[in-house]
Amino acid sequence: MTQDTQNPAVEKNNDTKPADNENVVNQTADTGNETPDKVPYARFNKQVKQTKALQTQIDEMKSLMEEKKIKESNDLSELKDLSMEQASKLKEYEAKMKIVEEKEAQEHSLLLEQIPEDEREIYGKLDVNDLRKIIAKANKSSVSTDKSAPIRGGLKVKDTSEIWDMSSENKRKNWSDIVNFYKKK
User: Fold this and answer.
1) What is the largest CA-CA distance in the chain?
2) Helix axes 128-145, 41-113, angle to 10 degrees
3) Does the pLDDT value for residue 54 go beyond 70?
4) Domain limits, the chain
């Protein structure tokens, strides 16, 4: 035999070239894992690409999260400003409301004073607008129920010639003024 075939590193195969078999063993991308530390080269490249892609995605997500945090903090500061503005307006309106309530209470008591005492308990629970209406209605009805004789401006007679120039009907209407004129004389 030849020296090449006697070498135990060289295996017998169907090929006539024993070096081909050795080259095949040295290539890592060819066959599966012979030891746990060896990874095929194609698989290694694939994993590296995938790791880099995932790392870029993670970096993008981190930057998006940071931008979102900044935006939320800006939104929160705007919301805080708005809430402070609303709180100041609320305090202002509460102060105005207190003044209005005090004025309404004063007006309510003044309106109740216009109502007779025996009816004040009944009308005391009503609000100011209803009290105004009731008092206005009461004032209208009291004026319309007054059926006394109308007050006459009367004729102010200054001279007797005026009396003689009057018609008989005017003399009847103004008779009291004519009598008063003669009484003063």
Assistant:
1) 185
2) 30
3) yes
4) 1-30
